[in-house]
Design goal:
The structure holds three protein chains of three kinds.
Chain A lengths: L4 E10 L2 E11 L4 E5 L6 H8 L7 E6 L2 E3 L4 H6 L2 E4 L11 H9 L6 H15 L14 H14 L4 E5 L7 H16 L3 E6 L2 H7 L2 E6 L2 E7 L5 H9 L20 E8 L9 E8 L4 E5 L6 H8 L7 E6 L3 E4 L3 H5 L6 H9 L6 E2 L2 E2 L1 H14 L16 H14 L4 E5 L7 H16 L3 E6 L2 H7 L2 E6 L2 E4 L6 H8 L8
Parallel strand pairs in A: 3-8, 3-9, 6-7, 7-8, 13-19, 13-20, 15-18, 18-19
Antiparallel strand pairs in A: 1-2, 1-4, 4-5, 9-10, 11-12, 11-14, 16-17, 20-21
Helix pairs in contact in A: 3-5, 11-12, 13-14
Chain B lengths: L10 H24 L4 H13 L2 H27 L7 H17 L6 H30 L3 H21 L32 H18 L1 H11 L1 H6 L5 H28 L10 H11 L4 H25 L6 H20 L12
Helix pairs in contact in B: 1-2, 1-13, 2-3, 2-12, 3-7, 3-10, 3-11, 3-12, 4-5, 4-6, 4-10, 4-11, 5-6, 5-10, 7-8, 7-12, 8-10, 11-12, 11-13
Chain C lengths: L4 H34 L7 H19 L1 H25 L4 H24 L13 E3 L9 H4 L1 E3 H18 L2 H11 L1 H6 L4 H28 L10 H11 L4 H24 L5 H19 L13
Antiparallel strand pairs in C: 1-2
Helix pairs in contact in C: 1-6, 1-9, 1-10, 1-11, 2-3, 2-4, 2-9, 2-10, 3-4, 3-9, 6-7, 6-11, 7-9, 10-11, 10-12, 11-12
The chains are: A alpha/beta, B mainly alpha, C mainly alpha.
Chain lengths: 488, 354, 307
């Protein structure tokens, strides 16, 4: 059978980073093909080359056996390649219909005609959507559905899904995987980029593994085991990780919320509704939630950045907050590390007296922190932008811990980091708990939470539920969608 | 709003600044020779008008530098906080109006408190005038770029109204106010026409530098301008309040410039008291990369450009208004150099094929 | 003062005519700026483009008549804004400051050129202007009639409203342009060249700005003077915000501004003595109030003035 898509010897370099080095990839029509690899292994880059978003330094792309040059996403679309991006690429202010028409380059003269064409695509695929709904008002599932419809509207037969299940609750992820299977059944070739082994094993026909920019394995998913795949991904057998259990004393809770309600941020979403919970010093509590479930409000309210609506809240000071977006919320990129220290410490800093700053003192403190936490930087005066993502995260963590917080709030602290760096972050959080802090950790990745937290709470539609010990992963997944356990 | 943060200044900034000035003058010279003027003679006339004599340097250039530096400091204050105050012209007039009114009513006061009161009136006038856009932004989200611009026209109309109405000279002949009382005038330095406001301005520049780099409040202001979201989330800074305060402070400085112009130079209010100081000051502040110390230098430089322009018109017949072209070129070159210097070739982001 | 009924009608008619006349340069400039802002760019150089257009219109008008002047003004506006596009879009300079610089430069350039060409004396330059074109039937109607006896560029301004509406909301180009203004990253992902779309938008804005300046000279004042646009370019930007970035809204906002400015004539005609400066201030003050009331966040292109 002629492959739908074949990539041969692809190399790509970004500055000092060799993202791909002679990578190969073969995709057949009618199959769901899992592309596995750690963060930074080159999965996304490879697929961005296949979708025309990036051009390879070396190597060739074949579509249905014919070599092609994909200079732009539009050219790739002409060859029937559609990509469903990890970070949604729709225009937030546009309606679903406008976004689909934009991607498919339909003429706009008659809105009725555009609508009919959208209806035709939704009808064919069975993915229903309100064409007039503004994209930014929709939830994650529907926004992702628009991304898929955009690809289908261009008559794509080669569909590349970039980490599509990463932000979904497990049951929704399952639904999406069924959609992908259905599309393959209709003759499309489907690529599922993922770093989740179980997903690849359970839902793909074929598996390709990338490690450090090279293809290290390709073969049928049948008969493979998770351990085998993990070995291919990591280059060595996986260690068995079980977090040390914290010894929780009977000290009074560091956070105590009683029927706490918070109005939604920016007027959209559910906000937080009558949440009652406690966090004790020394424990790491995982906050599991799909996007827009109220976690944004909860974390910011605990951090003192948002007003509560009603209910009671006691939080012991000092509180440190590590926001999700380190590039725009956690750090000022063009400021030096010392200045970013000033930013985090505010007037609590030892180098501020009567509102006057002693820069030398601040620089000394920064240098000390850089050494202690092994942040790779040229010094306290280095602009934050010169640090790699992992080192920026480490610096933010160091800054948060240096304030000796009683309560530490971490919002997706390992997002975008590779396995080694994210493990480092989680170990530091656990160590902070060990030293007596109450840690609330939010991540989109349920498996990470299960691996690193003492216990979990789930937020769904603004309602918070404490997960009883021994609850299965599936049940937690259902709770994240607001079904399952009913609050007592 | 990644403009001109200037946390770390490299040699590239200096080269760019000097290059900008040279580029501006070169384009002027080229344009003048295209238009059939003797470009060399015109530039010589310009130099002569600005620096050619002790009188030109002090009584023309330095006198003109005072409002430019003062307003430029205000612009730096606002821009550093990420607030685009394009309304310094209006704030200048608001300060001048209130200062004139005060200066007309201080008959018999001793000089020191009288001058202080007049200057204070200017500060209050400019502050009140910038309070409006600050309030409109915080309360209703109106872009300060547009509101401060609009208020320029209102202030100019108000000035015109004043000098033809309530503040018009007793004779009623010309659209201008009477001279403010002698006791409310800023004394002059030595035998020059430079008033003591110049010293005040030097002090203010030092103060502002200290504020930016040695105080928590100044740091919070810079953080707000560099990244409002990080300032809010990580710095727990009330960025709305900081922005409003910066805008009001900026207006106060522009208002002070207005009152110094009345109290130290013109002694009266009239319609074209400012030949566009509010806009030239933007160029002054930008060329200095919003550094208060450098603003003193660039303020004098731009004053020289404008007094030189007048000299050029007098001696070489070239319209003085063309120096605005030089100013525009300088701003553009600085902006472009800044964009090139401050943005390293970033690693290719997702979907950067275009 | 008591007016007879036909007198009132004539007064209202001439008041309306004045309002339309005042609003049309603003309308033309604001329609151009609407397209620019929809692409995510705020162009404070619009005032400069109008000024350049005004001088080019005057020069062209004195050489070959008003139509040639109009043509020349479009070229002048585009040339100036090509520089703005080069600096902001291709060299990534800050839009707001670069726009202010463009206006500053245009003041110097037009002032210098004007004195070079017409001498330093400031002799009143008298130009051939567009004659009022009448629309059959409509122009003879009461009240509406006098309002619709306007020179040709005014009608061009009216015409640009539905044309730009169609461009923005009923064409593929418009969809892509709005995508660029709302989310450059999203547009890029859809294979749209953000830079080129913004460049085209800015050039269109320059053409309209230039034409607005020529309208002021050739259809209204009949002469050129230094800084004669007197902030109308900035007012046009406020009108775009007031009209919520929609051509029909902009049309209404421009007319409103014209009506407010024309109040001056109405009061003068009715003999009530109010200093004219109040009427100079009124449109700006009311525009600010209106801006506060319309809550700009609702419809502003999300990427406006960023990057």
């Amino acid at each position: 059978m002629i492959p739908a898509l074949e990539l041969r010897g692809i190399s790509k370099r970004f500055g000092p980073v060799q993202a791909l080095e002679g990578a190969d990839f073969v995709l057949r029509p009618g199959e769901v093909h899992a592309l596995l690899g750690e963060n930074g292994a080159g999965k996304s880059t490879l697929m961005h080359i296949a979708s025309g978003h990036q051009r390879p330094d070396q190597g060739a792309v074949f579509i249905k056996g014919v070599q092609v040059r994909l200079g732009s996403p539009r050219e790739a679309a002409r060859h029937g390649i559609g990509m469903v991006h990890q970070h949604f690429s729709s225009i937030p202010a546009f309606t679903a219909m406008e976004n689909i028409a934009l991607a498919a380059r339909w003429p706009m003269r008659s809105p009725r005609e555009v609508r009919e064409r959208v209806d035709a695509v939704t009808g064919r695929s069975g993915l229903a959507i309100d064409p007039e709904a503004r994209t930014e008002t929709l939830g994650v599932i529907l926004r992702q559905r628009i991304e898929i419809l955009k690809a289908l509207a261009t008559d794509a037969t080669i569909l590349l899904f970039d980490e599509p299940t990463g932000t979904l609750a497990p049951p929704d992820a399952l639904d999406l995987l069924r959609v992908m299977r259905q599309l393959a059944g209709q003759g499309s070739a489907v690529v599922l980029i993922t770093h989740r082994l179980d997903e690849a094993l359970a839902h793909a026909d074929w598996v390709t593994v990338l490690r450090r920019g090279r293809m290290v394995f390709t073969g049928s998913a049948r008969g493979l085991t998770g351990d085998q795949l993990a070995t291919y991904m990591l280059g060595h057998a996986p260690e068995n990780l079980s977090p040390p259990l914290a010894a929780i004393g009977d000290s009074s809770p560091a956070v105590r919320a009683d029927r706490l309600s918070i109005p939604p941020f920016g007027g959209r979403g559910p906000g937080l509704r009558e949440a009652t919970f406690e966090i004790s010093p020394g424990e790491v509590v995982g906050l599991a939630a799909v996007e827009g479930s109220g976690q944004h409000e909860l974390l910011r309210c605990l951090a003192g950045l948002m007003q509560r609506g009603s209910g009671e809240l006691e939080v012991q000071a000092p509180v440190s907050f590590i926001p999700e977006d380190r590039t725009t919320e956690g750090l000022i990129q063009e400021f030096s590390l010392a200045e970013n220290m000033m930013l985090g410490f505010g007037q609590r800093a030892s180098w501020v007296r009567h509102g006057v700053i002693d820069p030398a003192l601040c620089e000394q403190a920064t240098e000390k922190l850089i050494r202690e936490y092994q942040v790779r930087a040229t010094g306290a005066l280095a602009p934050a932008a010169t640090l790699s993502g992992g080192n920026q995260q480490r610096f933010m963590l160091a800054r948060a811990l240096a304030q000796k917080p009683r309560v530490l709030l971490a919002e997706q602290p390992a997002r975008g980091l590779d396995i080694q760096a994210s493990r480092d972050v989680y170990q530091r959080l656990r160590a902070a708990a060990g030293a007596g802090a109450a840690v609330l950790l939010h991540s989109n990745d349920l498996d990470e939470l299960l691996a690193w937290c003492d216990r979990l709470v789930v937020l769904a539609g603004g309602y918070l539920q404490v997960v009883p010990p021994g609850t299965s992963r599936d049940s937690i997944g259902r709770m994240m969608l607001g079904s399952g356990l009913v609050p007592s | 709003m990644p403009i001109l943060l200037g946390t770390r200044r490299g040699i590239g900034d200096w080269i760019a600044s000097i290059g900008a000035i040279l580029a501006g003058l070169a384009i002027l010279g080229f344009g003048l020779s295209l238009a059939g003027y003797d470009a060399g003679a015109a530039l010589v006339a310009m130099w002569h008008g600005a620096f050619g004599s002790w009188y030109a340097l002090t009584s023309a250039t330095l006198v003109r530098a005072i409002p430019l530096i003062t307003i430029g400091l205000g612009i730096a204050l606002a821009f550093r906080a990420g607030v685009f105050n394009i309304g310094a012209e209006g704030q200048f007039y608001a300060g001048a109006i209130l200062a004139t009114w005060t200066g007309l009513h201080l008959q018999g006061w001793p000089r020191f408190p009288a001058v202080v009161l007049v200057l204070l009136a200017g500060v209050i006038g400019g502050g009140l005038w910038s309070l409006v856009p600050a309030w409109l932004k915080r309360r209703y989200g109106v872009l300060e770029v547009i509101s401060t611009l609009m208020l320029n026209f209102v202030a100019e109309a108000l000035t015109s109204l004043m000098v033809q109405g309530p503040l018009q000279e007793a004779r009623g002949a010309y659209p201008q106010s009477d001279l403010i009382v002698a006791g409310a005038r800023l004394p002059l330095i030595g035998g020059t026409r430079v008033h003591w406001g110049f010293v005040l301005v030097l002090f203010l520049a030092a103060l502002l530098w200290f504020l930016f780099h040695r105080t928590l409040w100044g740091f919070q202001l810079r953080a707000t301008g560099a990244s409002p979201r990080a300032a809010e989330v990580t710095g727990r800074i009330n960025v709305g309040a900081v922005g409003a305060a910066a805008l009001i402070g900026s207006g106060m400085l522009a208002g002070l410039a207005g009152s110094m112009e009345v109290s130290g130079v013109s002694y009266a209010l009239f319609q074209s008291l400012s030949p566009g100081y509010g806009f030239t000051a933007i160029a002054v502040a930008l060329l200095a990369r919003l550094d208060p110390r450098a603003i003193v230098v660039t303020g004098i430089l731009f004053a020289a450009l404008e007094t030189g322009g007048a000299g050029m018109q007098r001696d070489a017949g070239v319209p003085a208004v063309v120096v605005y072209v030089v100013e525009a070129v300088i701003i553009l070159v600085v902006l472009v150099a800044d964009a090139a210097l401050r943005r390293p070739a970033a690693p290719v982001p997702e979907g950067a094929a275009v | 003062m008591i007016l007879s009924e036909p007198g009132i009608l004539a007064l209202v008619g001439s008041f309306g005519a004045a309002a339309v006349r005042i609003s049309s340069p603003l309308l033309i400039a604001a329609i151009g700026e609407t397209v620019v802002e929809r692409s995510g760019v705020i162009n404070l150089g619009l005032e400069g483009a109008m000024l350049a257009g005004a001088l080019a219109g005057a020069i062209g008008g004195s050489l070959e008549g008003p139509w040639f002047g109009l043509l020349l003004s479009i070229g002048a506006g585009m040339a100036l804004m090509a520089l703005f596009a080069a600096v902001t879009i291709w060299l990534r300079a800050d839009q707001i400051i670069a726009g202010t610089a463009m206006t500053l430069g245009a003041v110097g350039l037009t002032g210098g050129l004007y004195r070079l060409i017409y001498g330093a004396g400031g002799v009143g330059l008298s130009l051939p202007t567009f004659q009022a074109a009448t629309i059959p039937l409509l122009s003879s109607a009461p009240v509406l009639g006098p309002m619709l006896q306007q020179p040709a560029p005014v009608y061009l301004g009216f015409l640009s409203v539905p044309v730009v509406w169609f461009l923005l909301f009923r064409s593929r180009f418009g969809l892509a342009l709005r995508a660029v203004g709302e989310s450059p990253d999203g547009a890029r992902a859809a294979g749209i060249s953000v830079r080129w779309y913004r460049t085209w938008a800015i050039l269109f804005g320059g053409a309209m700005g230039g034409m607005a300046g020529a309208t002021l000279v050739l259809a209204q004042v009949g002469t050129f003077a230094e800084r004669m646009t007197a902030g109308r370019g900035f007012v046009a930007i406020a009108i775009v915000v007031l009209g919520r970035w929609h051509p029909f809204g902009v049309f209404a906002a421009a007319l409103l501004f014209g009506l407010l400015s024309a109040l001056q004539f109405l009061f003068q005609a009715s003999g009530i003595a109010i200093p004219y400066q109040w009427f100079l201030m009124l449109p700006y003050v009311l525009t600010l109030l209106a801006l506060a009331v319309v809550r700009r966040r609702v419809a502003a292109p999300a990427a406006l003035a960023k990057s």
